[in-house]
User: What shape does this take?
Amino acid sequence: MKFGIKTIIIGAVLVLLVVSVVIQGYVMYQISNAEKYKVDNAGKVITAGVEAQTFWVTNRLLFVGPTVGNLIGMVLLGILYVMA
Assistant: This one.
């Protein structure tokens, strides 16, 4: 089976987009479990689940990674369009 450069580019774009969607889904799942700070009856601040700001600070690459992957995918598709 012979693979051309166009087939390789299309395969790379599909892989990038699938990985991007999986990472974005993971981020959305984690953020959906986030809860705001609550103050209990004793006046203590408690949290349950993941606090969104802390999640952003500790997992910043999970937000940036899919964006970069999408941009690379768009560039590859642009190259493919120019080659066609």
Summary: The first strand starts at residue 38 and ends at 39.
